[in-house]
Design brief:
The complex is a heterodimer of chains A (about 550) and B (about 200). Chain A is an alpha+beta fold. Chain A contains 17 helices and 20 strands. Chain A folds into four domains: about 5-110, Sulfite Reductase Hemoprotein, domain 2, CATH 3.90.480; about 135-290, Sulfite Reductase Hemoprotein, domain 1 (2-Layer Sandwich), CATH 3.30.413; about 315-395, Alpha-Beta Plaits, CATH 3.30.70; about 410-545, Sulfite Reductase Hemoprotein, domain 1 (2-Layer Sandwich). Chain B has about 200 residues and is α/β, with parallel strands linked by helices. Chain B has eight helices and ten strands. Chain B has helices at about 50-55, 65-70, 75-80, 100, 120-130, 150-155, 170-175, 195; strands at about 5, 10, 15-20, 30, 35, 60-65, 85-90, 110-115, 140-145, 160-165. In chain B, α6 links the parallel β9 and β10. The longest helix of chain B has 11 residues, at about 120-130. Classes of the chains: A alpha+beta (about 550), B alpha/beta (about 200). Chains A and B meet through α1, α2, α5, α6 and α8 of A and α5, α6 and α8 of B. The structure holds protoporphyrin IX containing FE and iron/sulfur cluster (SF4). The site of protoporphyrin IX containing FE has 23 residues of chain A, from loops.
Chain lengths: ~550, ~200
């Protein structure tokens, strides 16, 4: 993975000093609340329901074992012994003290980590596919360009105070796992007809209050121009994006109101005079960065080597759901589920983090990935060591074999932690997990994404869940609206509301009913989302609302 | 009174007089405490009546509102040649609408941009465009809600003078210029990205 040189390290160190100084001025009342706000936000510091919340960047989801260990340490030392992995490849600490934050940042800097631009109206953490570099469907490893974009966007002077936050995601795979169509800018790598690395550029996607699937602004951009092209897009957005109403300030609203053609024209006009300018990436820089992502020392000449554990059903279920095909014969990518029943989705205790760190050293070249589904991944595990790994990881409750299944719920912190929430979300996730705790039944239901957000800001990606649950407020009490048919990936779509909302107690049963309709209607091998697309919402509505008195 | 003006790295005396726009009866719509006079809304601000009523000194170095300058462009030719005329405009105004009528922006020894609120980052893109799209070479100044924590970014976006908000210490603000010593990306002050400047 990428290693800091003295330049990277100096920037991060200088940032800690700058932030320490800003905090001191704030505590000395030399900065008002209003003035300190954008400064702390640029540093991932929210003021939340209980305490400040600190969000730490995990650039494109990649962690070394040492870094994960440090995160665990920080959780112990400054927090309550756990952290929350978010849907944008970040980790959040919910209970740090404001005065401690510079020290936390200082400790992070020791392991080449930071909280730079993890919130605020700036370019946020760059995200990508959690299986980058190892997946068998990969065309181009997106991490090289992701790192180059990370550096370019770090303290970009022109884009430090945008109208609103700005998120960039990158995929280099035929199967998109990075949600590029739901980002402010989405980059999809491919090889063009001249055999050159090129990029399809999406713009103006996003979830939140106004969910919109992005539009293609450029079908084919040659890779060396990616920074200047992004610069042109961002300049147009920075100048013309709305600043009077924060709900209309995202780039998606600008693109929609101008129309993609008019927007594109503005971008091309800006690009014309910076194209081929100093920020054009050269081959030297690409190869400098690339060498950090070279293959680990894979064992040569190993064969497919999945030992037969035929009688161990739990292991086999895990093998089928939680491990994924690898580009190297004899290896698999393992996903540790942070979605065990009874835990808040995405939460990991410091004990778990330390365990994963140690396991990564022993089984996966000391590297860990974080997915937007809020799980942890060991990307390079030898097949013949899987059983051993499973036994060890089981002790730490990391092997729930529910990856990609109904209980692998994406969930935001919701009303328990977040001051913007309309309703709680974690307890809903837990009550659904409780009802569906039969692994055989879950495996029979098969692939299904269930996503929950506590309000329309959509931190839990409910719009793109096959089943989406959204907390809404009605006359001061908590209700839940259900959408069906949302999808992420290459065929991204926004789910449709099925009807009036439900109470918290009703929610598990409603999900159960949705599943019953699916099971009664599915054709052979048809997964949930395909079935919904085929039969539409009516059968679900009819069944769910048929004898219900819910009229809210 | 000590000066609030930072030029380059020093605090200097300001020898320009800013001409404010005439008071106006036009009510600026406020929403959530912010001025809703931004580009896409199509609102014309400053209004032409206001521009007409603005008066400015006949002598010395004056910094005129962009539209006021446009109105009097013809009769200001001589003073312009004497380097007595600078222009200023706000972050919602669009210089590109006037560049053709103005010709070379380098006739102005000074262009100043007014930023109403710290959080309004349009000022950075405006600086960048003035330097790189319109090749403006002379003094570029930020004024208004200009504080220590912006000026590193302002410098990198092409500004070289900063009029610090009156209630803040300009000496303290200067320190902000040195927040980072070796930035990653190429921008208006240092054109090349770090991987072209340094051996990595
Ligand atoms: C607890 C503190 C949090 C607060 C106050 C918060 C606030 C917000 C707000 C206001 C938005 C909407 C912004 C907009 O559309 O302009 C948003 C979006 C988002 N949040 Fe959070 N959030 C929090 C935690 C989280 C967590 C824990 C996650 C991950 C699990 C997360 C992931 C996201 C994502 C992915 C979006 C993007 C939706 C989009 O594309 O528009 N947030 N958040
Ligand atoms: S979706 Fe709403 S409730 Fe959930 S974390 Fe985001 S802002 Fe908070």
């Amino acid at each position: 993975m990428y290693k800091y040189d003295h330049i990277d390290q100096k920037i991060v160190n200088e940032r800690v000093n700058q932030y320490q100084n800003q905090l001191n001025r704030y505590l000395n009342k030399e900065l008002s609340d209003e003035e300190f706000r954008p400064l702390r936000l640029q540093n991932g510091l929210y003021i939340q329901r209980h305490a400040p919340m600190l969000r730490v960047a995990i650039p494109y989801g990649l962690l070394s074992s040492k870094q994960l260990y440090k995160l665990a340490d920080i959780a112990d030392k400054y927090d309550r012994g756990y952290g929350h992995f978010s849907t944008r490849q970040n980790i959040q600490f919910n209970w740090p003290k404001l005065e401690d934050t510079p020290n936390i940042l200082r400790e992070l800097a020791e392991v080449e980590m930071h909280a730079i631009q993890t919130s605020g109206n700036c370019i946020r953490n760059i995200t990508t596919d959690q299986f980058a570099g190892v997946t068998d469907d990969e065309i181009i490893d997106p991490r090289h360009i992701a790192e180059i974009i990370r550096q370019w966007s770090t303290f970009h002077p022109e884009f430090a105070l945008l109208p609103r936050k700005f998120k960039i995601a990158i995929t280099g795979s035929s199967k998109d796992r990075a949600l590029v169509q739901c980002h402010d800018i989405g980059l999809e790598f491919f090889i063009n007809t001249n055999n050159k690395m090129s990029i399809k550029v999406w713009v103006g996607g996003g979830l939140g209050r106004t969910p919109i699937i992005g539009s293609v602004i450029k079908n084919e951009l040659e890779w060396e121009h990616i920074l200047t092209y992004c610069e042109a897009i961002l300049r147009v957005y920075n100048l013309y994006g709305r600043r009077d109403n924060m709900y209309k300030a995202r780039i998606k609203i600008l693109v929609k109101s101008l129309g993609i053609e008019a927007f594109k024209k503005l971008v091309e006009d800006e690009w014309r005079y910076i194209k081929n300018g100093p920020n054009t990436i050269n081959v030297e820089e690409l190869s400098r960065v690339k060498k950090y992502f070279s293959e680990p020392d894979y064992k040569k000449d190993i064969k497919n080597n999945l030992k037969d554990h035929g009688s161990n059903k739990a292991f086999n279920q895990w093998l089928s759901r939680s491990t994924k095909g690898h580009k190297k014969t004899g290896y698999r990518a393992v996903t540790f589920s942070l979605k065990e029943t009874g835990c808040a989705p995405g939460d990991a205790s410091s004990t778990q983090m330390k365990a994963v760190s140690t396991l990564a050293d022993a089984y996966s070249f000391g590297e860990i990935r974080v997915s937007h589904e809020q799980n942890l991944i060991l990307a390079d595990v030898q097949e013949d060591r899987l059983y051993e790994l499973w036994i060890k990881a089981k002790e730490y409750h990391l092997v729930t074999p529910n990856i990609g299944l109904l209980t692998d719920i994406i969930c935001c912190p919701g009303g328990d932690f977040c001051s913007l929430a309309n309703a709680k979300s974690i307890p809903i996730a837990q009550s659904i997990q409780d009802l569906f705790d039969d692994m055989d039944y879950l495996h029979d239901i098969g692939d299904l994404n269930l996503n929950i957000s506590g309000c329309m800001n959509a931190c839990g990606h409910h719009h793109v869940g096959h089943i989406g649950i959204l907390g809404v407020d009605k006359d001061g009490s908590e209700w839940y609206q259900v959408t069906l048919g949302g999808n992420q990936g290459n065929f991204a779509s926004i789910g449709k509301v099925i009807g009036p909302s439900f109470s918290a107690e009703e929610m598990p049963v409603i999900v159960k009913k949705i599943i019953e309709v699916y099971l009664n209607n599915r054709q052979k091998e048809e997964i949930f989302i395909d079935c919904v697309s085929r039969i539409g919402l009516e059968p679900f509505k009819n069944y769910i609302y048929k004898d219900s008195e819910v009229t809210k | 009174m000590t000066s609030q003006l930072i030029k380059g790295k020093d605090i200097v005396k300001d020898d320009w007089v800013i001409t404010e726009l005439a008071e106006t009866e036009q009510v600026i719509r406020m929403q959530a405490g912010k001025v809703v006079a931004f580009k896409l809304s199509g609102e014309d601000y400053p209004a032409s009546k206001q521009v007409k009523e603005t008066i400015f000194s006949d002598t010395g170095k004056v910094l005129l509102p962009l539209k006021v300058f446009m109105l009097h462009q013809e009769k200001l030719k001589e003073r312009l040649a004497n380097e007595e005329i600078g222009i200023w405009f706000s972050t919602h105004e669009e210089i590109h609408k006037f560049t053709e009528a103005i010709g070379d922006l380098n006739h102005f020894p000074l262009i100043a941009i007014h930023v109403e609120k710290f959080a309004d980052g349009r000022i950075f893109s405006i600086g960048s465009q003035l330097r790189n799209k319109y090749n403006f070479k002379n003094e570029l100044r930020a004024f208004g809600d200009v504080l220590r924590d912006q000026i590193f970014f302002l410098k990198r976006s092409g500004f070289d003078s900063y009029l610090i908000r009156e209630d803040r210490n300009a000496k303290d603000a200067i320190k902000g210029l040195n927040d980072f010593s070796d930035p990653y990306q190429g921008a208006s002050d240092i054109l090349e990205p770090v991987w072209k400047r340094r051996k990595r």
